[in-house]
Design goal:
Blueprint (H helix, E strand, L loop, with lengths): L6 H17 L39 H17 L1
C-alpha cells in the first residue's frame, strides 16, 4: 500500500487500512488486511496476508467479471 519509506506515510497507510476495515466490517466481498505493528519498521509496512485476486489482475478478466468488480467498488464508495 505504501512504498514511500517514511514513518509518517506508514502511519497514514495504517489509518487508511483501519478506516477501510471499519467501513467494510462484515462485508464478505472485500478483505482488508490488518497491520502487524510488531513486524512493521520505519521502511516496511507489514500486514496480514489476504488470499484472493488483486485488482490489477481483473484487467484481463472477462467483461462480466470486470462489471461485477466495478459494482463492488462502487458499493464501497456508497458506504463512505
Amino acid at each position: 500500500m505504501c512504498a514511500c519509506g517514511t514513518i509518517s506515510s506508514i502511519v497514514e497507510s495504517d489509518s487508511v487500512i483501519m478506516w477501510l476495515r471499519t467501513l467494510l466490517q462484515g462485508d464478505e466481498t472485500f478483505r482488508v488486511p490488518e497491520v502487524v505493528w510488531e513486524l512493521t519498521t520505519k521502511r516496511v509496512l507489514t500486514a496480514d496476508l489476504v488470499h484472493g485476486e488483486t485488482l490489477d489482475k481483473m484487467e484481463s478478466s472477462d467483461q462480466a467479471t470486470r462489471n461485477l468488480v466495478r459494482c463492488w467498488i462502487l458499493s464501497v464508495n456508497d458506504h463512505s
